[in-house]
Automatic annotation (TrEMBL):
Annotated Tail sheath protein C-terminal domain residues: 344-443
Family recorded in the similarity comment: Belongs to the myoviridae tail sheath protein family.
Origin superkingdom: Bacteria
Phylogenetic placement of the source organism: Bacteria, Bacillati, Bacillota, Clostridia, Monoglobales
Matches recorded under InterPro entries: Beta_sandwich_Seath (IPR035326), Phage_sheath_subtilisin (IPR035089), Tail_sheath_C (IPR020287)
Phage tail sheath protein-like beta-sandwich domain location: 96-186
Stated name of the protein: Phage tail sheath protein
One Pfam family this sequence matches: Phage_sheath_1
Residue ranges annotated for the Tail sheath protein subtilisin-like domain, each copy included: 189-336
Amino acid sequence: MLGGGTFTTMNKVLPGSYINVISTGNATAALSDRGYVAVPMELDYSPDGVFEVTAADFQKNSVKFFGYEYTSENMKNIREIFCRANTVYFYNICEGGKKATNTYATAKYPGEAGNQYKIKIEESVDDENRFIVSTIFNSTVVDVQEIEKITSASTENNGLVDNDYVNFKKNVVPTVTAGSSLSGGTKGTSSGTTIQNALDSLESYSFNILICTLTQTTDKKLFVNYVKRLRDENGIKFQVVIHDPENEIPADYEGCIRVPNKVTDGSEAAYELVYWTGGAEAACRVNGSLTNVEYDGEYTVGTNYTQTELSNFIQSGFLAFHRVGSEIRVLDDINSLVTVTDGKSEDFKRNQTIRVTDQISNDIAVLFNTRYLGISPNDNMGRASLKNDIVKIHEGLRDLRAIENFTSSDITVEAGDKKGSVIVTDTITTIEAMRQLYMTVYVS
C-alpha cells in the first residue's frame, strides 16, 4: 500500500499522497464514480472473504451469491442497500457453518440456504446410454448437464462438472433419482476475530460508505476508530454509517454518520435503517444532498418525534428521518461532527461538503499515484502538468455545480523541501443545496 493520509510536517517516509483538507482562515484527471459500499455482515450463505456484487448481479444472481431469491424476505436488508447503491463489497463475518450435502453433491458454501438444493438424475430421452443431471433450487432448475452412464467410478471420472451452486462428488456412480435433497447445511457465527478480519480485508478496496451492521457499542466504536485511522493516517476517504439510537457513540467526526431512528418491523435491535442510509449516501451525487430525500425502502420507520427533538438531532450530529405527510424523509444530510474549530468550520458538518472534499482527495491521490509517482520529473514542466490535471478535476466539479468561483489560480503546485516532494495548495468554495427559506411578505 502506498503512503497516504494527512500531514503536520513534510517528513513522511513512504512515497504517496498526503492531503490535508481544512477550512479557509482514477488514473486520469477525471471524477471517479460514486455508489460503492462496503458491508461486513452476518450472511447465512455466501462466498468467503470480500466479494463484489453489482445491482444487476443481485437482481439476476442473488441465489448464486446469497442462496436466496431476490424477492425473499432474507434478502430485504440487501435490497435496502441496492435501492440506491451501484456496487457493494460484502464480507460474511460468520464462520463455522456446515455445507449441505447429499450422495451426489455438496453446496457451494456453508449455510441453511444450501438445504434448498436437490439433484435430479434421469435417463436421456435421446440416448439410453446418457444421463441428464439437473441442479434444482426449490422448484427452479438452475443447471443442467448431460453425462455418459458409468458402472463404476474413481476420482474425477463420472463426468459431472461443478456449477455456481454445488460441487459434485466425482467418485460416485450416478443413478436415476427423482430428486435427492441436500441437507445438513448450517449458518456460522460471528466473533470479534471475524469482524476484525473483515475490516482488515476491506482496507485494500475503494468505496464511499462503510455500513456498520453490528449492534454492540464496542463494535460500533471499532468501526468509528477504523474510519478515523484510514481517513487521517492512510488518506483513504470514506464515511461509516452506524445506528446510534441511545447516543452511545458521540463520534464528533465528519467521517461518521449516526442514524437515531429505529424500524418497527425489523430485528429486536431495530437497526436496519443503516442499510438504506449507507446505500443512499454512497450513491448521492458529489453535487447533491440527501436532505429531504424520501425513504423508498421496505421498512416501517419510527418517526414519533417532536419539533424540539428533531432540532436536537441536528444540533447533536444525527442524520434523522421524519414524517412529512404520508412520506418518510431525511431531515438533514449531516454527519456526527458538532465541534467547530479553525480547521473544521460549520461546512464540515454537512455530508455534501465531505463528498466534495473526499472526491478531491481520492481523485488527486489516484492521479498522483498512477501518473506522477516515480514517473514524472519534479521540475517546472512536471509540476505544471500536475497542476493542469488537478485543475481539470476542479473544473469538472465546477461544471457539476459542486464548487463555485474556481479559477486555476486557486491551485498552486511548488517544489517541496526535498527533491522528490511537491507542495499543492488547493482553495475551494463548496456549494450547498438549499435548506432553509426566510421570507417576509409585506401586505399594504
